[in-house]
Design a protein that fits this description.
Blueprint (H helix, E strand, L loop, with lengths): L1 E4 L2 E6 L2 H4 L3 E4 L3 E5 L6 H17 L1 H21 L9 H13 L17
Parallel strand pairs: 2-4
Antiparallel strand pairs: 1-2, 3-4
Length: 118
């Protein structure tokens, strides 16, 4: 099943990890989320932030710096209780870019999608 968010295809994936809130963005392909999160505007804004990273930094920087660091962090957060994936530079910058893109929305979920002063 597919939908669109800001012109980006959203693929709804029916697996355990995606249904627990995991999501992945592959710029040029789309955003992959679980059925339960397919209407979660906060999560979609965050994932769209990774599209914005790609647009801002370009193919090589995204795929050789951002993507590996983000995937490593996501993996670590599943293995280490004290590792918070959303507190890494890749996620902070995706949030910041999205926050600015959407004109600093008053309903931004700062708790789950924090910003920083990078």
């Amino acid at each position: 099943m597919k939908a669109k968010f800001e012109g980006v295809t959203v693929f709804i994936v029916n697996t355990k990890s995606f249904n627990r809130g995991a999501a992945v963005t592959i710029p040029g392909v789309g955003i992959f989320v679980g059925r339960k999160c397919s209407q979660d505007t906060d999560l979609l804004r965050h994932e769209f932030g990774h599209v914005l990273q790609f647009r801002q930094k370009g193919f090589f920087y995204f795929w050789f710096k951002i993507a590996p660091a983000s995937l490593r962090s996501a993996f670590l957060s599943s293995k280490r209780e004290n590792h918070i994936h959303m507190h890494t530079w890749t996620e902070y910058t995706a949030n910041q870019l999205s926050y600015e893109y959407f004109n600093r929305p008053t309903d931004w979920d700062f708790r789950n999608f924090p910003l920083t002063d990078f």
